[in-house]
Write a structure and sequence with these properties.
Blueprint lengths: L1 E5 L5 H12 L4 H6 L6 E7 L4 E10 L8 E9 L8 H15 L5 E3 L6 H9 L16
Parallel strand pairs: 4-5
Antiparallel strand pairs: 1-2, 2-3, 3-4
């Protein structure tokens, strides 16, 4: 059983530590900024109260003529707790918040080589969207 709730400042050490362990980059100030009003930042805990992971997103509007959409910009689950429903519970809770704001689409960006996260989002019903990311390396 997983409980989802809004992230609090007291969650930041666990959030930053999990992210640093999984990405190799420590960025506590970035996560502190995600607690800003208007952003959605949720955490999941196991039935025993252990930190299981987090998700963060926001509603963004009118980028390149697109209607408002909910954007997922981060999700991390403790590897020991994956496949136990925490990721799906977080995603569903975030989607409910997006719906409450009146949006009808959810979007995210993923690395096409990251099969783990691609599989997760596909399992949530997400498919390739109408936009194409363009990229340029700067010297």
């Amino acid at each position: 059983m997983v409980a989802v709730r809004p992230a609090q400042a007291s969650d930041l050490p666990a959030i930053s530590a999990l992210d640093a362990r999984l990405t190799g980059t420590c960025k506590p100030e970035y996560w502190r900024e995600r607690l800003a009003p208007g952003l959605h930042f949720l955490v999941a805990e196991t039935g025993k109260g252990a930190f299981a992971g987090f998700i963060a997103g926001e509603v963004r509007a009118w980028e390149f003529g697109q209607p408002p959409a909910g954007w997922v910009f981060a999700i991390q689950i403790d590897p020991k707790l994956r496949l136990k429903g925490a990721g799906s519970a977080l995603f569903e809770a975030l989607v409910a918040r997006f719906k409450a704001e009146g949006v009808t689409r959810v979007r995210t960006l993923v690395d096409r080589k990251d099969h783990l996260i691609l599989s997760f989002f596909r399992a949530q019903g997400m498919v390739a969207g109408p936009s194409l990311q363009l990229d340029k390396e700067l010297p």
